[in-house]
Amino acid sequence: MQILLIDDDIALCELLNEYLGAQGFNLVIKNDGDAGLRAALADDFALILLDVMLPKRDGFEVLKLLRQQKLTPVIMLTARGEDFDRIFGLELGADDYLAKPFNHRELLARVKAITRRIEHITAANKTQNLLWHDIEVKTQSREVYAAGHALLLTGTEYEILHLLLKNAGEIISKEQISEQVLGRRLAAFDRSIDMHVSNIRKKIAEHISDERIKTIRGTGYIFVYGS
């Protein structure tokens, strides 16, 4: 699979190229935001690793412009302790984030979690479509409709909504969502699931006024018919 790495740290890029290359991934490397955005729009990558601090155009702007045209999975590379960067990146449509400096094995685990999802999609999933009143999920095309209107969801948002809808009426914990969708255990103070659910709610709310995903405080979420 081909991965686009957008990062201005030359030494890190060389290291990741060697490390991920040994795992069977083909890396295309760009060292500034403008070049990275052009590459991301010109080709279909399995995944984009996107640094926040970039010359010419920062990672947030790259992601914002990318999301206007493509839903390529994106893992943001953020500075350790910068909670704002992580939350803002998720709000803009990032699939996951990883704080620098990171363990290369942790990066590989995040990459594999997303690429496994892509392989699963390519395998022509023949699961029946899901319909819960005015929300419909077409599993083969991965299209989602709210009151007949198509929702533009990222891969992670789709997987979370699919999981909740498949278990409609049941409480699904944040830990379950993190492990089944992101492929990792939920860390303390990790707000990634909350942000993804918030994005899904906003997109559904554009077409349906009743709240479909309710928060069960201290536990997780439940998909319901409405209020």
Question: Globular, elongated, flat, extended or rod-shaped: what is the shape?
Answer: globular
CATH superfamily of the largest domain: Response regulator
Strand content: 15-25%
Rg estimate, integer Å: 18 Å
> How is the CATH topology of the largest domain named?
Rossmann fold
What CATH architecture label of the largest domain applies? Answer: 3-Layer(aba) Sandwich
Helix content: 40-55%
Count of runs of 4 or more consecutive helical residues: 8
Largest sheet: 5 strands, parallel
* Class from helix and strand fractions: alpha/beta
- Quickly count the domains: 2
Keywords:
227 residues, alpha/beta, Rossmann fold, Arc Repressor Mutant, subunit A, five-stranded parallel β-sheet, four-stranded antiparallel β-sheet, 8 helices
Give the SSE layout:
Layout lengths: L1 E5 L3 H13 L3 E5 L2 H10 L4 E5 L7 H9 L6 E6 L3 H9 L4 E5 L3 H19 L7 E3 L2 E4 L4 E4 L2 E3 L3 H12 L4 E3 H9 L9 H14 L7 E4 L3 E4 L4
Parallel strand pairs: 1-2, 1-3, 3-4, 4-5
Antiparallel strand pairs: 6-7, 7-8, 8-9, 10-12, 11-12
Helix pairs in contact: 2-3, 4-8, 6-8
